[in-house]
Amino acid sequence: MAFQDKTLTCRDCGKEFTWTASEQEFYQKKGFENAPVRCPSCRALKKARMNDDRGPRQMFEITCAECGKKDTVPFQPKGDRPVLCRDCFRKERSATA
Which pTM value belongs to this model? Predict the structure, then answer.
């Protein structure tokens, strides 16, 4: 399927923006069915506002299952799997990559 650049109007600011053929191809590969409704700058503003509303991430203290070091992680461990400190996590990740 050959894509062509399309001119769309932003829902938020009303300005026209170009939805390029390569962006359309990317949307199709990702399985997105709808065209964007906001221009790139309004999309970035909306994303920034959403991140600001979230507030700081809650961190949980853990003891590394590998080396025994104390560290913090951005999720609450459930206890069903071992949790690693940042250093051991990076080591394990680079070994499997």
Answer: 0.52
